[in-house]
Amino acid sequence: MKVAVIGGGVAGLGSALALSRLGHEVTVFERDDTPTPATADEAFSWDRRGAPQVRHSHAFLARLRNLLRDHYPDILQSLIAEGATEMRFGDNLPATITNFERLPEDDDLVMLSCRRTTFEWVLRRAALAHGDVQMRTGHGVVGFTYAPGVVPRVTGIKLDDGTTHDADYVVAAGGRRSPVPEWLADIGCAPVNEQSEDTGIVYFSRFYRLKPGMEYPPRTGPIGGDLGYIKYGVFIGDNRTFSITLATPVADNQLRKLCSDPIVFDNIARSLVATSTWLDGCADPITQDVHVMAGLLNRWREYVVNDKPVVLGMHVVGDAHLCTNPLYGRGCTTSFLHAHLMAQAVANNPHDVAAQATELHESTQRELYPWYKSTVEQDTEARRVASAILDNQDPDSDTTDPRTMMRGVFRDGLLPAMRTDAVVMRAFFRSFNLLTLPDALMKDADIGARIFAVWNDRDNRVPEPALGPSTRAELLQLIPA
Ligand SMILES: Cc1cc2nc3c(=O)[nH]c(=O)nc-3n(C[C@H](O)[C@H](O)[C@H](O)COP(=O)(O)OP(=O)(O)OC[C@H]3O[C@@H](n4cnc5c(N)ncnc54)[C@H](O)[C@@H]3O)c2cc1C
User: Fold this and answer.
1) Is pLDDT of 481 > 80?
2) Which residue's CA is the nearest one to ligand 1's atom 11?
3) 285: which strand partners?
């Protein structure tokens, strides 16, 4: 079969890899006109304006690493050969955890550390090494060719140079700005179902490289956190690089402006316990500017409505279907997994495009929708807290509000329990890494009991050490005018 894939990001390349292994002839159309780099560092300066998030910190979760391990071990090996590293649960535990015993399931709890550009470059190289994958860069897709019908059938794509390309079916993987619903409307399809919500944050990232002879600081403490008025994290990259990300509420114009200044950015990072040791002289910045990304949505689109596909012969994968808040680091995992689910639906129904659409819809609902839902719930609460802080109010003032209690359980139960109990930490990281569903942690009676025991004991413990300036005003005071 001849397949046209729109977009050469994680979902498009994941689709090309999976479909070419089914024996399909795949052509990937990527609008960015950029030759494939030769090294990881060259990839870092890649012109990828169609996917501006490549200049931001990325975590690669265990679910993604396991998909590579189980289906593309050659790609996992290539990533490691190009400088990516594996971060295993159980390594670098804080000294306060004394009950860790390695379990067989811990072999699955391994994250991958590398820059997003390195990850995509290695994926692209692997896809192109397959004789059945062609990549046409510098070609933007502007719509579909189709055969009319009650449900229109896509027969190919229209390109921005006025030409068309025929395909037995099309995979749309054009990322978060993808206008697929409008293209479908243009060919007479029924509207897709869409839900979307602002994540409430603006993202700021800067990359660094260790100086010769220096090592990464110890990683026994948390490498990220949330002070309500600012969120932050450190991400290890490949080849002795790392990045720091700060995220401010959208409405906090003052902090947004400050974070985009590289000197202020570094100063803020130095005031946070988790990030300060990374900037105490062991590394130099490799991005002179701070990269900023706003307009970040959580968005879910359904292309099967009332049990009927709105289009035939076209599947949508990755961010074009589901975008989630980057803070949770899920997008590449959900995108690559989605490409894999799409290829399974194709393999299971090779000659029936309607059955492919239905199977993909069902597996997407089952495997991915819970993550969209949980992201929206978490963000709704985070926005409430951030807005109270910005209005100089105490987000926990209403003690009768169940959300206040849940925040208390998180802060004074789950977080301290993770510092002392490997069982709770493992359960948290399994969920964080998409190895269990989002509600698995709180549904597990043993884990719930451990967390509540720690929470109930909160008044008998010495207060937790501060993670950074405890109020926004305190942080602002640290920044010279
Ligand atoms: C600030 C930020 C930080 C993030 N951090 C993380 C993280 O830590 N971990 C994680 O897993 N995920 C993270 N993500 C999400 C992750 O980057 C995305 O989920 C992932 O890149 C989606 O892959 P995709 O292939 O669907 O889209 P993209 O990677 O965006 O690729 C889409 C491609 O399609 C091309 N394209 C678009 N339109 C057309 C067209 N009309 N014709 C031809 N080509 C076209 C674009 O040029 C682009 O190359 C982050 C996202 C953001 C915004």
Assistant:
1) no
2) 332
3) 208
Give the whole-angstrom CA distance, residue 104 versus residue 122: 29
The structure tokens 């390594």 sit at 91
Taking the centre of ligand 1 as the mean of its atom positions, its distance from the CA of residue 17, in whole angstroms, is 17
Determine the distance separating the centroid of ligand 1 and the alpha carbon of 174, expressed in angstroms.
8
Cα–Cα dist 235/246, whole Å: 11
Q: Report the pLDDT value the prediction gives residue 465, as an integer from 0 to 100.
A: 81
Find tokens 């130099």 and name the residue. Answer: 284
Task: Give pLDDT tens digits for 302-315.
Answer: 999 999 999 999 99
Q: Which domains, and CATH codes, for the chain?
A: 2-50+115-196+297-372 (3.50.50.60), 201-293 (3.30.70.2450), 394-478 (no CATH)
Which pLDDT value is given to residue 410?
A: 86
Q: Is the CB of 56 under 6 A from ligand 1?
A: yes
Q: Considering only CA atoms, which residue is closest to atom 33 of ligand 1?
A: 7
Looking at residue 425, what is its pLDDT?
A: 96
Burial of 218: CB neighbours in 10 Å, binned 0-12, 13-18, 19+ = exposed
Is a pLDDT exceeding 90 seen at residue 238? yes
pLDDT band (50, 70, 90) for residue 462? confident
Q: What distance in Å separates the CA atoms of residue 241 and residue 469, rounded to the nearest whole number?
A: 27
**Which residues, including other chains, have CB under 8 Å from residue 373's CB and lie 6 or more apart?**
438
Beta carbons of 323 and 331 less than 8 angstroms apart: yes
- Closest C-alpha to ligand 1, atom 45: 7
pLDDT band at 361 (very low <50, low <70, confident <90, very high): very high
Backbone φ and ψ of 135, nearest 5°: -125, 130
For residue range 61-117, list pLDDT tens digits in order. 999 999 999 999 999 999 999 999 999 999 989 899 999 999 999 999 999 999 999
Tell me if 338 CB under 6 Å of ligand 1: no
CA 6 / ligand 1 centre spacing (Å): 12
Task: For the full predicted model, state whether its pTM sits above 0.85.
Answer: yes
Instruction: Identify which of 17, 49, 58, 123 to mutate to test ligand 1's pocket (most ligand atoms within 8 A of the CB).
Output: 58
Residue with CA at minimum distance from ligand 1 atom 12: 331
Q: What is the rounded distance in angstroms from the CA atom of residue 170 to the CA atom of residue 3?
A: 6
C-alpha 430 – ligand 1 centre gap (Å): 24
Name which of 434, 253, 404, 222 is nearest 328 in CA terms: 434
